[in-house]
Amino acid sequence: MKLRDTIKIVTRNLGRSKTRTILTSVGVLIGVAAIVTLISISIALNRSVVEQIESTGDIKVLTVYPTSFRFGGTMMRNRISNNTMKIIDKDALKEFEKIYGVIVVSPVYEYSGLKVETGRVYSNTTFIGLEPNKIREIVGEIERGRYLTNSDKYSVIVGSKFGETFLDKNSDKESIIDPYGKSLKLTLQRGFDGKIEKKTYTFRVIGVLKAKGTQEDYNVYVPINTIITIREWITNSTINPESTGYPRAIIKVKDIDSVNPVTEKIQNMGYTVISIQTIINSISNVFKILQFILGGIAGISLIVAGVGIVNTMTMSIYERIRQIGIMKAVGASNSDILWMFLLEAASLGFLGGVGGIILSFILNTIITLIAPFIMQGLSLKVTAPFYLIIFAIIFAILIGVIAGYFPSRKAANLSPVEALRYE
User: Fold this and answer.
1) What is the pLDDT of residues 333-390, one digit of tens each?
2) Which end of the chain, N or C, is less packed with Cβ atoms under 10 Å?
3) Measuring CA to CA, how many Å separate 62 from each of 58, 221, 285, 411?
C-alpha cells in the first residue's frame, strides 16, 4: 500500500468520527499546553531574575574574600581544609594577577554609613577604597573629569547617579545636584580617653563616571590608603594589611567566558569568590529543577491523554474489523495495517500538540499582559522558545504512537477470514 493511499484512508477515518477525534485530541492539547506554558513561565522568571541581578553590577567583576566569611548570615568556606587560613595580602594579589584571563586586581577597603554634606544638602553613602592606578579598568569610563592618581588623597570619583542621592538639610526632601567639582564635607567622631573628638575631612569630586544602568551608578570611589587612614583615626590604631590582610579584593576578567575558569582557580587556592555569574549559575540551576518538576507534573496529563488514545484506537478497531478483513483480502499486508493505525494514532497526537501550542501561546500572552499588575510592576515576558515547541509536538506524536501501538498491532494480526465473518 502506498503512503499516499494510507494517508487518504487515515484522513477519511478521522473525519468520520469528528467528535471522538476532537475529544481525544483535546486531552493531548491540554497536556501540551500545560507543559509549554509552565516551562515558559519558569524560563521567563529565570530571565527576569537574571536581568535584575545583572543590573546590580559588572558581570566580569569577581569579589574575592579570605578563607571564610559571612555572606547573608551564612558562613562561606573555601575548598581547602578549614585549618588553612588564607588572607588577602600582597603575595595573594600577585598570584591573582598571574591567572590567565585576569585584567586587573585591586584590594578593597570600604567604609559605609558616611554622611557627606555639600552646601544645603547631604547624602548617606559608602566610600569604596581602591588602588588609584587600578581604578580605570574597574569602574569604567569617565564622562567628566579624570580618574584618581597615586598623588590624590582627598579626591573622589562618583557614579552617574550619585547626585540623585542627596536630601535637603532642613526638609529632608530629595534634592538632585550636579556633584562634579563639588566639595564633600565628611565629619567623623570618636571616643578617646573619655572625650568625644571630631574630625572633618573635605573631599573634592574630580570625576563623574558614565552611566552603566547598574547599582554602581551610585558608588563613590576613593584612594584605598585614604580609607585606611580614616579607619586608623576612628579606631586609634594602626592597620597593617600585610599582617591582617585586606577585607576583600576585586578582580576584573577580560570576558564573560573567563569568569568561571578564574573563579574555579581562585577557589582552589583557598579563597571564597562571589560574582554575579556564580549567583546567576546557582539561580539557573534552581530554575532548571523547577522546570523539570513542572514539566513532570504537566506530563501526567499527557499520560492520561495517552490512555484516551488507547481507548479511541481500540474502539476504532472493533468498528472496522470487516474493513480490515477486506483490505487484507485485496492484498494489504500486516505492516500496511499496522502503519495505517499507527499513523492514525500519531495524527491524534499531532493535532493535540498543535492545538496545545496555540493554546499555550494565548495563555503566555495573557500572562505577559497581567504580570505587571499582579507582580508589583515586574515585567515578565512569557514566550515559548522554539526548541520547546518542537519538543512538545514531537513528544505529543510520540505519546500517540506509543499509546496506539498495541491496538495497531492487534489490528494488524487479525485473521482476514475471521475479520470478514465478524458481525
Assistant:
1) 777 777 777 888 888 888 888 999 999 999 999 988 888 777 765 678 888 889 889 9
2) C
3) 9, 17, 20, 65
Identify the residue whose cell numbers are 569604596: 128
Q: Quick one: which H or E segment has residue 257? A: none
Please check whether residue 130 is in contact with residue 225, taking contact to mean a CB–CB distance below 8 angstroms: no
How far apart are alpha carbons 321 and 309 in whole angstroms? 18
**Domain spans, the chain:** 3-53+282-421, 67-270
Tally the C-alpha atoms within 13 A of residue 137's C-alpha that lie toward its C-beta.
Answer: 16
pLDDT, tens digit (0-9, with 9 covering 90-100), for 176-190: 999 999 999 999 988
Instruction: State the cell numbers at 290.
Output: 523547577
Residues 136 and 122: their CA atoms lie apart, in Å, by 27
Residue 53: helix, strand or coil by DSSP?
helix
Q: Confirm whether pTM is higher than 0.70.
A: no
Q: Are strands 155-158 and 61-65 parallel, antiparallel or unpaired?
A: unpaired
Distance CA 54, CA 279 (A): 10
What does residue 196 show for φ and ψ, rounded to 5 degrees? -100, 120
Cell of 4: 499516499
The residue among 278, 291, 346, 410 whose CA lies nearest residue 37 is: 291
Cell numbers 576613593 correspond to 222
Residue reference for cell 526548541: 387
- Size of the chain, expressed as the number of residues it contains: 423
Give one DSSP letter per residue of 94-151, joined into a string.
HHHHHSTTEEEEEEEEEEEEEEEEETTEEEEEEEEEE-GGGHHHHH--EEEE----TT
